[in-house]
């Protein structure tokens, strides 16, 4: 079984490698290719990756390459974890929207649109090369904004599933609070990527008892603290929103916070520098402590589970992923991409039925879906007008003057990444 | 043919009477009952109404009463134009939301929710009395928020149609600009009450040539000026939004404007005082000039047309009204109430097919529909929690802290009008 | 020794009476007159006042009257604690400025100007009557805004001193934290009423050791919590600002807070209702617990100390009061009224020398002094233009559009209290 | 007579040269040295300068050098027109303050502080070199923020006068409106650099008739349009504020504007590129049209007038400059630097008496003076704490959270220019 990781030179990769090593029974990888245009970085990361495999006695080989076509050839699955423009572009995404009082964030709002515009063409190019070299390979997309990118892939006919770590994070958190095994926890996780609510937390499976009311009653403070939202939010809603709902439920407060502190990109960039220095140490043969602060907890577990289900291995077969709606949320078009519990097997992902979504959430989901639709149009076809339309359609923008100004700022800060601009 | 007007003591009534007088060929009313609990005011208005009929040689009789049941008995149609709490309540609706930076308006946002909460139970009570006394009567609802009130009526099984003057205003305006008869102008008017866009302006009927691009090119300045929006909005969208879209497209600017000037309610209250003084003059036998500034242009024409179509008279048979969606906008539930061109006859209103609504608008329409759904729940069943949910679901509120604060303010200012509060 | 209390029907009065009773050695009052136009209320308060004196064995008499001239005749000192327009006017002051994003507060910003405009003419009328009936009487002004009201009194040639409880509150608080007697604590308290900083906390007197650095280091959390400001504010400034500096240092956050909760006036009004019910109980002969939440802690101690110093009794002779600057703060005009430690005796109050005020504070003090100057002009001479000028000059307003809007709102909400409007 | 221009490679220099050529009777320069570290740019600008002199028959020589000491040696006057960090630094100054809702501008607010911090040490170093090489030379400072920079120079004992073109711009504008010669127009120009009001416009001199009321009545629209403020501002104040008062009187509106359009620095940078291309054309021998849009109108006339007065030539002897207050504004310290009409001769600048400044303006002037005091401390001595203090003291910042955030942003964007950071 051969896996390729596009963006394999990421400082995050050792986390993924550690997961592959620990979970080799679930996903028996024989060959792992790390692909990245940044050769120097790739060498540092690849070296550590090999030492981790060696220390844990994993028999698979790890190779590195900057040649995408060569790297993906013959792969059974290709993981996408790239970042077009790197942390520098992210820092921009997090900053310029604040100039007109709008949230600056890498996946939500105007910053998220910028990321989508930069990313979709690159991902589609990669996917095209994968299709040419390894027509049967599955594409597993971690690359943000996962919802829009996955829709771009599916719409272009690729074998793709989108993956995010929000759901698995909740699963592990709730399992710990309930003192049960993570696999016992089934989430009624509904919405769009980064716009989801846990409507139920069931023991054993979709038909299990819903423990969410008990969880909130007994552990509401801990849950709310993780979300950086007041306890009252969780109590009043009676469901658990994803952390990203802060950008909606507390928009103005978040804007003030973001305007008052260094960008997350600046923090991550500093951390990456430190991590790369550590990776260069030939004595290091496990993921360093520091990596925990880098974000992306449990991504490797989620990736292993998903890949093994898709490739006929020992995966759980049920997982929260991003895929076509196909009637799951009746108020959305079939070809919208949603994030929800799905049955996953060699034929791909099929959403499970979910509880009805309260209008309190469904209205917002419809609104953001319309934005994502327009964002994808802009990413595929370019043009100032399409960017403007997507921004006006975003519930966090919505005002004419802001949409105009944000369009100009987006273009001014992203010209080098947008072929059409 | 007997018509009853609930809220007949409104200073606006002479406008309606003038329309009935001018258009008696279309709608041959024989008996008109003005119903209002405010007997003094009713007397002033009723007197002028009779003098207007007399001067124009209308043979029908006009009676006044504060007894609702008596007044509506035997009516063929009942027009609802009431305002629970009067201008005083409206002034509140326009003011307290500003305290937390949200728009204060009688139909949009938190103020509109307050109005819905006050109004729906009163209207349903009246409709129940109409059904008991005149089971075949049509209810024509002018009472705001028309969308929510109409949905309440339809959901309770009443024979009702909702009516607003935004569409007829555009029709008349565009006819003038195009130098054609108003009846020649067919609007592709799509959305929800006070949340509509003119997607096309067709000559002669639904299949006529679309003159909207020409209208915008040649008269964009005049159109934008009427909307109090910059010309660029109309040019960029290529469609004409209703004036109420300002509360969305220019929300923050409108909040600043509203915070800087007297409320519209205060202006109207002053005007009403003046109007009533005029009405008391027995020499006055036509609607005074001043009434033009009161708002509600062309309401009487729209009402006459609608009533005559419903009652088998000489109405146009095609009119913009509020009624069940029933698949017209495919992304909304069938039982959402939309505002659009409809065929109107003795069986009621049936929406005509409309062009597809761009996601740039459809997302917002879905979001507001979800709010209206929750607003109606709150109006029907009461409770702080339902009010909070509706506010959190509103795209112009959406933030937890504001939803909480606005809920408290709404309740504090409306306790006397809310049985459950 | 005869004392008169104008506004004696306040629910706060039992606090004052309790102080007079406890501190009768310092201030041997023989006759106390409570004066208030609200006769019913005065009766309730007066009854309890007499029972408190009786229980504590105070030999003085307490009388009540609604006749101001009669009440003040022969008084040695007259205490002013009135509130023109009551809690209803205060509720307005706290609310309408929020409509354009400005702080709504009873003494700071536009609400404070409204209070000044309502209050100054009433206080000057009372002072004139005092001068006619008791030319030697001292006027002790508690009535807010104390700085502007005191300046009005002094400028009109009255024997007046302004008093606020912020300083004595700090003195008691710091004494407790330092575990010394309050009289041991000398404050370098500098600025204007409700715009002060404790620059030093000295043991024993003006030349004593400055314990403020130690206080902040050891008790910074407790001090900051009392101020409702983050600990960082106290640490970074190295001095202790008055609670009212929140309206400057955290203006936007306070506006959001105020927009999200019931007004303080509404809370106080509810409490007053409860208190009056308690006062009516003939068995009650001490100030009830509930009174502690009413605000005004230590006012009675401060008043007794000040009155006894002015009247040649056993007062401390040194106290924080409001009086003419006379060069104390060299960057302000001599006839500005400042709040600072002063020597107080039968000739009145004379400020003690204070440490130089850092430009970080002095600039703001100059700015607010200019505002107070214009506010007093507006209070004395009326006119929309003077109101506008004062608002434009206020550092928390300062913008043309806001000054215009706030002027209109101030006038609209205060017409009944402003003879000239 | 030898003059040196530090920053002589500025694209603005041809304007200055054109003035020197036209006004050679007033200021008979024999040698002009353009000094700039950017040798390439200096060559382009110097070439055009020589061609302008040649075409207009000016007999003086123009030399260029990047060696400051050599260039200033023997100079009678040194003009400072440098920009530390260039347009790139300016673009930062105009942008990052917007991220927390504060005005971003090159001389006002947090951006102006950044410029002061970068500039003061450089200017003091240059002034020290001037003093060593040409102890009698006058320093004429155009470099912004002129008020703070001039105070730094004077405080260090240099022979310096600060100059800005706001006053001469008003003089020329008013002269045109009144149809008189500019020299006939005497301004009662009072305040601090970029914080001034024209309190009077007198014909013939300080004692002439005040024509300001007539100017406003007859030309208020034109005057207000130049200021980009509503006519009402001019009418209501009855005086003419400088354009920079917009940042105070319309702060929030300006922030929105700035957040919605490209920075002024970006515009100027584009224009400079174009200008330099033009300057390279050996056929060009006059200042090009395009230079008019660069800003700085009438600077050359003001500079010639000032230099000739200081050097005993034919200057007017009375001019608006920046110099020590020395009691002119009685509410400011003597060593504050103000901007006002002054008598200028070989002994330097001595302010003329000015009308009293209304508290409506004086409060703000005091506040900004306190800020400038702290800004200079920060520029001279460095340190995060001093930056924070200056920001907290600025009337457009004033809030703790913003002062903290802006301090961090200022430092993050200016580290390369601040030796101590």
Strand content of chain A: 15-25%
Most extensive interface between two protein chains, with residue counts: A-B, 39 and 39 residues
Outline of chain A: globular
Largest sheet of chain A: 6 strands, parallel
Low-confidence stretches of chain A at least 5 residues in length (pLDDT < 50)? none
Cα end-to-end separation of chain A: 41 Å
Helix percentage of chain A: 40-55%
- What is the CATH T-level topology of the domain at 2-163 and 262-280 in chain A? Rossmann fold
Summed up, the helix count of chain A is: 16
Structural class of chain A: alpha/beta
Task: Give the radius of gyration of chain A.
Answer: 21 Å
CATH class of the domain at 2-163 and 262-280 in chain A: Alpha Beta
Element string of chain A (H = helix, E = strand): EHEHEHEHHEHEHEEHHEHHHHEEEHHH
CATH architecture group name of the domain at 2-163 and 262-280 in chain A:
3-Layer(aba) Sandwich
In spatial order, strands of the major sheet of chain A run 3-2-1-4-5-6
User: How many strands in all of chain A?
Assistant: 12
Name the assembly state. Answer: homotetramer
User: What average pLDDT do the residues of chain A reach?
Assistant: 95
What's the CATH H-level superfamily name of the domain at 2-163 and 262-280 in chain A? Answer: NAD(P)-binding Rossmann-like Domain
């Amino acid at each position: 079984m051969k896996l390729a990781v596009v963006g394999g030179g990421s400082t995050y990769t050792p986390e993924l490698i550690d997961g592959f090593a620990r979970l080799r029974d679930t996903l028996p990888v024989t060959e792992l290719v790390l692909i990245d245009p940044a050769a120097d970085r790739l060498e540092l990361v690849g070296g550590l990756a090999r030492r981790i495999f060696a220390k844990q006695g994993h028999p698979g080989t790890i190779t590195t390459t900057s040649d995408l076509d060569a790297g993906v050839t013959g792969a059974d699955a290709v993981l996408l974890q790239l970042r077009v423009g790197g942390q520098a572009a992210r820092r921009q995404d997090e900053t310029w929207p604040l100039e007109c009082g709008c949230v600056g964030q890498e996946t939500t709002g105007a910053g998220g649109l910028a990321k989508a515009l930069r990313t979709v063409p690159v991902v589609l190019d990669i996917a095209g090369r994968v299709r040419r070299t390894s027509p049967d390979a599955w594409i597993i997309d971690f690359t943000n904004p996962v919802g829009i990118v996955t829709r771009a892939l599916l719409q272009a006919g690729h074998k793709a599933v989108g993956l995010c770590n929000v759901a698995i994070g909740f699963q592990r958190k709730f399992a710990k609070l309930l003192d049960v095994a993570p696999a016992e926890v089934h989430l009624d996780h509904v919405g769009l990527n980064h716009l989801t609510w846990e409507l139920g937390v069931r023991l054993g499976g979709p038909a299990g008892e819903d423990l969410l009311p008990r969880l909130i009653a007994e552990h509401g403070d801990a849950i709310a603290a993780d979300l950086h939202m007041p306890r009252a939010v969780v109590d009043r809603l009676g469901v658990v929103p994803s952390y990203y709902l802060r950008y909606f439920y507390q928009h103005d407060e978040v804007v003030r916070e973001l305007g008052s502190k260094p960008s997350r990109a600046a923090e991550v960039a500093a951390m990456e520098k430190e991590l790369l220095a550590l990776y260069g140490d030939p004595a290091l043969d496990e993921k360093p402590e520091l990596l925990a602060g880098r974000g992306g907890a449990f991504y490797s577990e989620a990736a292993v589970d998903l890949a093994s289900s898709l490739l006929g291995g020992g995966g759980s077969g049920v997982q929260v992923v991003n895929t076509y709606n196909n009637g799951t949320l009746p108020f959305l078009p079939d070809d919208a991409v949603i994030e929800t519990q799905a049955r996953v097997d060699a034929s791909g992902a099929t959403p499970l039925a979910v509880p009805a979504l309260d209008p309190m959430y469904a209205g917002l989901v419809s609104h953001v879906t319309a934005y994502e639709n327009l964002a994808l149009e802009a990413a595929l076809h370019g043009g100032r007008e399409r960017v403007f339309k997507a921004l006006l359609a975003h519930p966090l923008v919505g005002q004419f003057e802001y949409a105009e100004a944000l369009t100009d700022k987006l273009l001014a800060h992203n010209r080098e990444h947008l072929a059409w601009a």
